[in-house]
Amino acid sequence: MAEMRVGLGYDAHRLVRGRPLILGGVEIPYHLGLSGHSDADVLSHALADALLGAVGSGDLGTHFPDTDPAFKGISSLVLLERIMTLVREKGWRPVNVDATVVAQAPRLAPHVAQMIGKLAPILGLSPDAVNIKATTTEKMGFTGREEGIAAYAVVLVEKLG
């Protein structure tokens, strides 16, 4: 039986005016965007942390610190590609991903297929192995008050060869 591991990732960013809202590499039409050093894509960040955790390689901030100007405004898909290189170099590959984005608004369901279309090729997975869900908190907490958006991701990886 193949060696397998699970990683869990979480990220949250504040919603602000004057920034695009990027989730899973997709620009979502909305009057607010996420504040951060990179594009602040909480879904990609949670997924990146889940991958790093599964292969025992720390977290996103360790690899791409927000104090490094090289990462200012960078696409989180680029960061995810770099993490996938590390994952493969360590001898692992993703098997499947399950993620949840927590946001009171905007409605994300119409954009999920496009997010999967962006993420699956980077992960080397078929679209049916990448599951993304969206939920609200029924107006409770920082996401419910539309102060920010959060994401959780779980990834299963298996040892290559």
UniProtKB/TrEMBL annotation:
<feature type="binding site">
    <location>
        <position position="145"/>
    </location>
    <ligand>
        <name>4-CDP-2-C-methyl-D-erythritol 2-phosphate</name>
    </ligand>
</feature>
<dbReference type="GO" id="GO:0008685">
    <property type="term" value="F:2-C-methyl-D-erythritol 2,4-cyclodiphosphate synthase activity"/>
</dbReference>
<feature type="domain" description="2-C-methyl-D-erythritol 2,4-cyclodiphosphate synthase">
    <location>
        <begin position="4"/>
        <end position="157"/>
    </location>
</feature>
<comment type="pathway">
    <text>Isoprenoid biosynthesis; isopentenyl diphosphate biosynthesis via DXP pathway; isopentenyl diphosphate from 1-deoxy-D-xylulose 5-phosphate: step 4/6.</text>
</comment>
<feature type="binding site">
    <location>
        <position position="13"/>
    </location>
    <ligand>
        <name>a divalent metal cation</name>
    </ligand>
</feature>
<dbReference type="GO" id="GO:0046872">
    <property type="term" value="F:metal ion binding"/>
</dbReference>
<keyword id="KW-0456">Lyase</keyword>
<dbReference type="InterPro" id="IPR020555">
    <property type="entry name" value="MECDP_synthase_CS"/>
</dbReference>
<comment type="subunit">
    <text>Homotrimer.</text>
</comment>
<feature type="site" description="Transition state stabilizer">
    <location>
        <position position="136"/>
    </location>
</feature>
<feature type="binding site">
    <location>
        <position position="142"/>
    </location>
    <ligand>
        <name>4-CDP-2-C-methyl-D-erythritol 2-phosphate</name>
    </ligand>
</feature>
<dbReference type="InterPro" id="IPR036571">
    <property type="entry name" value="MECDP_synthase_sf"/>
</dbReference>
<dbReference type="GO" id="GO:0016114">
    <property type="term" value="P:terpenoid biosynthetic process"/>
</dbReference>
<keyword id="KW-0479">Metal-binding</keyword>
<comment type="function">
    <text>Involved in the biosynthesis of isopentenyl diphosphate (IPP) and dimethylallyl diphosphate (DMAPP), two major building blocks of isoprenoid compounds. Catalyzes the conversion of 4-diphosphocytidyl-2-C-methyl-D-erythritol 2-phosphate (CDP-ME2P) to 2-C-methyl-D-erythritol 2,4-cyclodiphosphate (ME-CPP) with a corresponding release of cytidine 5-monophosphate (CMP).</text>
</comment>
<feature type="binding site">
    <location>
        <begin position="64"/>
        <end position="68"/>
    </location>
    <ligand>
        <name>4-CDP-2-C-methyl-D-erythritol 2-phosphate</name>
    </ligand>
</feature>
<dbReference type="Pfam" id="PF02542">
    <property type="entry name" value="YgbB"/>
</dbReference>
<feature type="binding site">
    <location>
        <begin position="59"/>
        <end position="61"/>
    </location>
    <ligand>
        <name>4-CDP-2-C-methyl-D-erythritol 2-phosphate</name>
    </ligand>
</feature>
<feature type="binding site">
    <location>
        <begin position="37"/>
        <end position="38"/>
    </location>
    <ligand>
        <name>4-CDP-2-C-methyl-D-erythritol 2-phosphate</name>
    </ligand>
</feature>
<protein>
    <recommendedName>
        <fullName>2-C-methyl-D-erythritol 2,4-cyclodiphosphate synthase</fullName>
        <ecNumber>4.6.1.12</ecNumber>
    </recommendedName>
</protein>
<feature type="binding site">
    <location>
        <position position="45"/>
    </location>
    <ligand>
        <name>a divalent metal cation</name>
    </ligand>
</feature>
<keyword id="KW-0414">Isoprene biosynthesis</keyword>
<comment type="similarity">
    <text>Belongs to the IspF family.</text>
</comment>
<feature type="site" description="Transition state stabilizer">
    <location>
        <position position="37"/>
    </location>
</feature>
<dbReference type="InterPro" id="IPR003526">
    <property type="entry name" value="MECDP_synthase"/>
</dbReference>
<feature type="binding site">
    <location>
        <begin position="11"/>
        <end position="13"/>
    </location>
    <ligand>
        <name>4-CDP-2-C-methyl-D-erythritol 2-phosphate</name>
    </ligand>
</feature>
<dbReference type="GO" id="GO:0019288">
    <property type="term" value="P:isopentenyl diphosphate biosynthetic process, methylerythritol 4-phosphate pathway"/>
</dbReference>
<feature type="binding site">
    <location>
        <begin position="135"/>
        <end position="138"/>
    </location>
    <ligand>
        <name>4-CDP-2-C-methyl-D-erythritol 2-phosphate</name>
    </ligand>
</feature>
<feature type="binding site">
    <location>
        <position position="11"/>
    </location>
    <ligand>
        <name>a divalent metal cation</name>
    </ligand>
</feature>
